[in-house]
Amino acid sequence: MLGVALGAFGAHGLQDLTSDEKILNVFKTGVQYQLYHALVLLIVSLFYDKLPGRNGKYASIFFIIGTLLFSGSLYLLTYVMILHWVVPTLLAVVTPLGGLFFLAGWFMLVLAAFKSRSQR
Known about the structure:
Helix content is 83%, strand content 0%. The chain is mainly α. It contains 4 helices and no strands. It has one domain (2-118). Helix 2 (21-46) packs antiparallel against helix 3 and helix 3 runs antiparallel to helix 4 (89-118).
């Protein structure tokens, strides 16, 4: 729900604040990754009981942390850029860290798929 609301804001309200394509694209990327991983979390929850071990749990946790760090930092970056503030160095580190959590989540799902297949 939050991803859809932020997407609507980005498509309509954010354009009233800035016309800078770079800023709009940063925000759009945050929304896209948030929505992609919300969908993946929904799918993981549907098949949670079929995933071996704790892979589904860890994948879900990694996707949630990744979304908070990756998309959250891009939303904050958008705000900072609109206000023409200096981008904090820490913010530049948080986004890729969120990306690493996304990768870890996907790795856990792939691992679950291989474990599930080998148990058949």
